[in-house]
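User: Teach me something about this protein's shape.
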Amino acid sequence: MARFLRILAAAVDGSVILIGGTLILIVLANVVLHLFAMDLAWVTELGEFLMVWVTFLGGVAASQRNAHMAISEVLDKLRPESRRVAEIAVQSLCLFVLALLLVFGWQIVASSWGSELTTLGWPMAWQYMPLPLGAALMLVFHTRDLVALVRREPRPRPDVTFDEGVQ
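Assistant: First, the predicted structure itself:
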């Protein structure tokens, strides 16, 4: 299972890098086009499309590192066992919300196959697909974290904490 999670995390990271790099190129192309008083509608629509994808996949990348923003002042004041119970409750709530996003997001995707993006002509469902996909992938990593908490195993730490990142 650990190997699968590492491969999944690497695939998500690679996708975020690829989509993010493409998005940068599209924004630069759009700026250059505007300098010459030109406009290609599909460039703007593709940028919006990729922004949605990179947002949700970026959320997955943060989830797999346990690096989402958290306000931990209350948790920091709790005794270790009370803190663990509170963290289990928080992870359980996250799983519930992600399950809702998955179910309702999939309903949105399923109902939008008949519509098309204005200029690209792609099914609108592809614009909405990152919501249930991101929720499903975040469910995987939050489940891993919940299992680690229940088993009293260490959880992944963020690559950079707020204290380390701000000088």
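Now, about its shape. DSSP finds seven helices and no strands in the chain. Residues 2-157 form one domain. If you'd like, I can walk through any region in more detail.
User: That's plenty for now, thanks!
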